[in-house]
Amino acid sequence: MRICRISDIDIHISKYLLLLVVILLITGHSDNLPAAFFILCLHEMSHVLAARLLKLKVSEIELLPFGGAVRIQSLFELNPVHEILVSVAGPLSNVLLLLFYFGGVQLKWLTPFSQDSDFVNINLMLAGFNLLPALPLDGGRMLRAILARQMGIQRATRIANGMGLLLALILTTAGLYGLYYRVVNYSLFILSGFLIYSVIQEKRNATYVMLKDITYKKEALLKEGSLPIRNIAVISNLALKDVVKKFIPQRYHYIQVMDEQLKELGTLNESEIVNGLLDHGTQISVGRLLRL
User: Could you give the residue range(s) of every CATH 3.10.580.10 domain in the chain?
Assistant: First the structure.
């Protein structure tokens, strides 16, 4: 749900965050809610600042139960360094606030918490939780960026998504464990549901990002003037859809086609693979494409 527009950035608030706020109000745990919301906004603005320093255009911010999501018009996931720098900026802002606090800087005017311990706890929770290596958290995005350099965006997303599902399972288990002892914590179930929903969205987005990477590789090559080459050896009966899963960002690929005796049959470049996908579909084998 869009709540406002600041400069040229749309600000949205997630229905999961609204639900969490309503529950906190009903259960009487909303004393520091305005101040916590302000800390959350500072966290997100740090992502925006990092993106703009990297000359990436931010189109919108969505505030979420654990932090938020910055939507960037360019596909910054295709540049692992950019994704890491933008992702780490949010937790780093919380760490800096804590360093200022422990260094004796008075922050009461900035974040009027009822107790100093609340200021410390919320910053620690926001930074620590977001650094967990699970999508869609900042730590999960950093994990994906690191893995994508070696195994491609789709497989890296699948691993980081798996960590997200594992975290959702842990949160659900903790919530059920609390219910068994009559300790109700609705936020655990809300966070778990949101993580599962986000994992599904990230999986769909990974395919889109991979296809965009392939489509705009020529544009990137013309812009940069050069791209590193990566060679891949594949068996001739492998389908094109499985070949492109081997592609990684910021590399131009050459595919060496082998028969079952590992005798080289020929070589295809990335552009020929892309044209084969467009002309003949995803199921055609790389060996058959070589013979056309």
Answer: 229-291
The residue ranges of DSSP E strands in 34-133, in sequence order, are 58-64, 67-72
Model's pTM, two decimal places?
A: 0.76
State how far the Cα of 216 lies from the Cα of 99, in Å rounded to an integer: 42
Residues of the chain under the 70 pLDDT cut: 1-7, 16, 19-21, 23-32, 65-68, 72-78, 104-117, 207, 212-213, 215-216, 218, 220
Q: What is the pLDDT of residues 178-212, one digit of tens each?
A: 888 888 787 788 888 888 888 888 877 776 777 76
DSSP 109: T
Are 14 and 194 spatial neighbours (Cβ–Cβ below 8 Å)?
A: yes
User: Which of 56, 34, 62, 50 lies closest to 86 in space, CA to CA?
Assistant: 50
**The domain made up of 229-291 is a member of CATH 3.40.1190.20:** no
CA dihedral over 217, 222, 223, 225, signed as positive or negative:
positive
User: What are the phi and psi torsion angles at 36 (to 5°)?
Assistant: -65, -40
Each residue's pLDDT tens digit, 111-129 = 555 556 677 888 888 899 8
Determine how β-strand 264-269 pairs with β-strand 229-235: unpaired
